[in-house]
Write a structure and sequence with these properties.
single chain, alpha+beta, seven-stranded antiparallel sheet, three-stranded mixed sheet, 11 helices, flat
Length: 332
């Protein structure tokens, strides 16, 4: 059943004109005036950066003068790029497009809690020419510009004052109205040599850059084949994937847009994950990024297994080695 035009605010009903619905004379001229709306199917399939979305055509044209409105109301299907399966193709961030599509459905902005991709989503809204959505996404920046408070769990909050940290001296008023005296710290409180509170690795910040300390582990699987002449015939294979384990906020800080979050999207920044991997396959590039972010290698380990070639469909004299290696990086 078609949605009411007044409820969705769609141009010309977003896909079905009153003339066409009633079979009135001249409906073909009305269709031509709308830019060929009848040429598109009611249900459209979109391939956005490799992610497939299936939605109604009236949804993608719900905001007049937007990029999608012009594509699906002012152009013909033959003018739009398609993938190998005939889906309409858009070369944009496929995972952020879900929020663009949600907005187009009811013109409301609803994001998950601790959403870390707000600025990137604003960029997508500007690309799709959705000014109202871009304006809503830009509003919290004013609050973010205020001095941020450090919570004991290491999270940053600009709205609430931080709770008292262990180890600080609290002033108590003296009887008789005279001055104040500092009470002794708690026996369980620990302090740094400089006199300030000593925070745990998940709580502390780098004084110069405001960077959180913590650990990041990267790992990869590799394989190589050794022939009958041992090292002379060794054949190494390219590293297939470099995995990233650690706190979400730290991983995104270090690797930025080179981090593939497809296996664990919308992860809150204070949570941990072991499902991220990098979009490149060079370990040295990962090491450079970690070094530039102030991390140092703390430990590494590797395990390996060996199988003879015939068991893996290879030559009889070959040995195929498979290894898994992890590198643990730390930032104090």
């Amino acid at each position: 059943m078609a949605l009411a035009d007044s409820a969705r605010g769609l141009p010309n009903g977003g896909g079905v004109s009153p003339a066409a619905g009633s079979g009135a004379p001249g409906s073909g001229a009305a269709a031509a005036a709308t830019g060929g709306w009848s040429s598109f199917p009611e249900i459209v399939e979109l391939n956005v950066g490799g992610q497939v979305y299936v939605t109604r055509r009236c949804t993608v044209v719900s905001v007049r003068d937007s990029l999608l409105w012009r594509m699906f109301s002012q152009q013909q299907p033959s003018e739009l790029p398609r993938d190998s399966k005939g889906r309409f193709f858009l070369d944009r961030d496929g995972f952020l497009f879900r929020y663009i599509l949600d907005y187009l459905r009811d013109l409301q902005l609803v994001l998950p809690e601790h959403f870390p991709e707000r600025s990137r989503l604003q960029r997508e809204a500007e690309y799709f020419q959705l000014p109202d959505l871009a304006r809503r996404l830009a509003q919290p920046r004013a609050a973010a510009a205020r001095p941020a408070a450090l919570h004991r769990d290491g999270s940053i909050c600009a709205e609430e004052p931080p709770p008292p940290l262990l180890g600080y001296l609290e002033a108590e008023p003296l009887e008789g109205g005279g001055g104040a005296v500092a009470s002794a710290p708690s026996p369980t409180a620990s302090r740094s040599p400089s006199g300030g509170p000593l925070l745990t690795p998940s709580q502390s910040l780098d004084g110069a850059g405001g960077r959180r300390s913590g650990y990041i582990t990267i790992g990869y699987r590799g394989s190589y084949t050794i022939g009958r002449e041992a090292q002379a015939d060794a054949k190494f294979r390219r590293v297939a994937r470099i995995t990233v384990c650690g706190k979400t906020a730290l991983a995104k800080e270090v690797f930025g847009e080179t981090l593939n979050e497809s296996r664990d999207p919308d992860r809150p920044p204070e949570r941990y994950t072991a499902r991220y991997y990098l979009k490149f396959n060079f370990l040295e590039q990962a090491f450079d990024r970690l070094s530039e972010a102030g991390f140092r290698m703390a430990a590494c380990s590797s395990t390996g297994t060996c199988a003879f070639g015939p068991e893996q469909g290879g030559p009889a004299d070959d040995k195929i080695w498979t290894s898994y290696t992890e590198y643990v990086f730390c930032r104090d």
